[in-house]
Amino acid sequence: MATLWLTCLAAMALGLWIDTRVTPATLLASECGAPGGLLDMAWRHGALMPASSAAMALAALAPWPAGRMSAPPLAQRLLCAFAMAIGMVLGARLGVTAALLLGASPFGGMALGMAAGMAVGLVPVAVFSAARR
């Protein structure tokens, strides 16, 4: 699981770097902290950060072999991509909010929140994987 998270995190970071070449980091952070429901946040996230969203999803869906075993089944990879995407969106919102409360950089809070949200998003995948064994 840690390797998957690190792979997806690296892909998301590369995508975020690409996204900030098009959209200023301050705008990305302000939109992630804007009010709205999960669908609103997901829409803004996908529209303003297409590279980071796509890179993370592709890394999660890729059929990476797990040690000596073959790649996880497609259903597990889909669950992983979905759970991590939700975690990334919610983590961005919480990270911006926390950064503002602490007087820190909203963009830094957004990036850390996204990473933490992706890690939390892996919990259902780990449970699903353990149940299959």
Brief rundown of the structure:
This protein has 133 residues and is mostly helical. The chain is built from six helices and no strands.
Give the SSE layout.
Elements: H1 2-22, H2 25-32, H3 38-48, H4 50-61, H5 74-102, H6 106-132
Helix pairs in contact: 1-4, 1-6, 2-6, 3-4, 3-5, 4-5, 5-6
Describe the structure.
This protein has 133 residues and is mainly α. The protein has one domain. It contains 6 helices and no strands. Helix 3 packs across helix 4 (50-61), helix 3 crosses helix 5 and helix 4 packs antiparallel against helix 5. The chain is elongated and about 45 Å long. The mean pLDDT is 87.
* Distance between the first and last residues' Cα: 15 Å
Largest sheet: none
The overall strand count is 0
Overall 3D shape? elongated
Keywords:
mainly alpha; 133 residues
